Each structure stands twice: as C-alpha cells, then as structure tokens.
Request: fold
Amino acid sequence: MPRRSVLSRKELLFLVCAVTALAQPRPKLFDQVGPMLDGLSQITGWKVERKVPAEILHQSDFKRMMQDHMKDSGNKEIHAEELILKMFGLVPPDFNLAGEEVDLLSEQAAAFYDYNKKRLFILDTTPDGEESRLALVHELAHALADQHHNLGKYMREGSPDDDGSTARQAVMEGQASWLSWAYLFWSRTGRGEIPEDRLSAIEDSAGADGPVYTSAPLYIRESLVFPYNQGIRFVDAVFRKLGRASFDEVFDHPPVSTQQILHPDAYFNKQLPAMTDAPTLDAALGKQQARQYRVLAEGVLGEFDISALLRQYNNNAPSGAMEAAHFRGGSYRLYENKHDKRPVLTCVTDWESPEAASIFLSMFRQVLKGKWKQFDIATQTPTELTGSGDSGRFQVRLSGTGVQSLEGLP
Reply:
C-alpha cells in the first residue's frame, strides 16, 4: 500500500511523537539534553559523537512546515495516493488526504528530530513534566541513532511507498519509544530495559486521541500509531533475544515487511514476502483497449494493509487480523484512462494455503459490498466473483493460493 502521507509521508510522519500537547515547556527542559544523551549512551553502548541542538518551535510554524511539505510533494502524487485509498475503500469518497493529514499531525505533534538539519524541536504546546521529558528522550534517541545509522539513508534504502518502508519506520519509532521508557526505568533503578510486565501498559498509554484522530478512518488512525505500538513490541522482542546488540542489528539488518514487525519470529527466521505481480489490463480488456490506460501508481501490500482492510469491513473483528496472519505477499497497480481519467485498480494477494486464500475471497466479498453503495453480483462460485460496483465492473478470481482482483473496468 502506498505510504506517502499518513500512509507514508515518511520524512514527516516518523518525526512526530504522538503525545497530547497542552502547555508551554520550561526552558530548563533543554538542560537535560546532555544527561539524557549520556544515559541513552550507557543503555545502547552508542558513543555520543556530537551535541544535539534543540529549540522550541511554535505550533503554527510546524503546521506551515507540513503544508509546505505537501506542496513539495506535488498535486499529482497526492492525487494518486488519495485515489488508491479510495479505490481500496480505506477512506470515504470525499476524503481530503492532504488536509486531513495536516490537521491530524498538527493535533498530535509534540516534538520531532530533523535528520537533515541534525536538530531537535519541541513544540511550544508540549506540556511540562514527565510527558515533555518522555518526548525529549524519544527525539534524542532518534538523534543518537542517527549518529550511528544515518536515518535519512536508512529510510531511503527501499522504496518509500512499500511495506518494507513501514517496517523500517516501525524500527525507528519503536526503538525510540522503547529507549525513552527504558531511560526512565534506568534513571530510577539503574536497569536500562523495560520490565516485561510493564510493556502492555506502556503500549496502551502510547495511543493517540483528539477529535481529528477519533474521526479519522481506521486505516489512517492505525497508520499513525502502528510504528509506535507495534514497533515497541518488535524492538522489545529483538532486545530479549540479542540484548544490547539488538540496537545495531535492526539497522544493519532491517525487517523487510510489516509481517516481520507483527511476528518477530518471521524476522528471526528471515521469512520473506512472496513476490507477486498485479494483473495487467491486457487479459481483461484486450491489448488495444488496454493501451488507452497508463499506470498511475503501483506498490506492495503488507500484512498491516490486509489486516486493516479486512477489519474495517468486518466490524474490526479479530478474524480480520487472524486471516491476515496467513498472508504471504501482495501488490497492486492503479491505472488511469488517458482520456476520461477513469481509474482501474488491479491487485493480487498470495496466501499460506488454498484454504486461507478461499477464506480471504469470502471476506473480500464483504469488503466490496461494504465500500460501495451499488453492489450487483453477476457470477459467484467458490473460485470466482464478478459483477459491478460504484467504480465499474469487478472481477475476483482464486487460483491455488492466489487471489486476483480487478475493479473499475468499463
């Protein structure tokens, strides 16, 4: 799934520490930068190579920064990202991706580390006390990691719009979140780790809130918190297995999928996603008619995407996440008609077994029915589903462990 924007406007999203912001921090907060870096150094074994400049940033300036970032991304790119979300049914037809993202991150932001400027910022609305300390340690953990594993390069190592990019983001945010809590325990007990019996409570406390967040579609909300909540669990699992060596390991050998984040054993066992190629339009439309379309965007699907999609149209039931755990890999391709701009979405998913693929086909029928006002079935068999919906004709076919779908056909 594309991860620009809340899906993957990575250079912006991963910077944000999702802490409720209400009051102005005191200047003495920055006096703690040196001792905090020293503590993080003792926990990780990473030497502090250089000082980390820190300053207070007005929230209005932060919002303008995000708006400028949107403009730099380009209208065509944002249009494609928004259209993909709408075609999958992950956001409603009237959803404004750029505007919603600016509002969401403005509501949630407390602090961020700019890995290009090598500078840390605390928003002037961040509350004083333990929340501001936690936000500061979180961003200092990013800064220290950046001194040993170039974060900009780390995020550019793979496609910025694939499932692996989300996995790397979860490493960065999960590690910074883990280290910020480990630092608090270290400062009180001298032990630089999170007690096992405290991890669930910490994860629960890391959620976001606020009216913009609460009203956002499920996929948008979970895209914001996944790198923190699931990332901290992944980092903790690697730490339990490797100890201090884990801090370098997740950068030297990053996870390649959200499946590895959700299931650390898949990371330890080097379980790779299945290679898939989304269908072309030649077979469905014929080569001559297919030439009337151009590829607008294409990318990789991950377990995170499939889980959110299935749960969104099955009342957020655990069965969606359970089925997604049997997912092996997938990809999509978004086409646009060169003349009338009509979109067509093609997708392929691969599963652990024919049984798992069959269950997905059944659940995907609920997705199609739920996301459209019009849902007319022409053919329905154990291996095929065809008909028409709001975006045009659709075809869904099961073959072995694979399920292919085409939506928006004329």
Remarks:
- The chain is about 50% helix and 15% strand.
- Residues 2-26 have pLDDT under 50 and may be disordered.
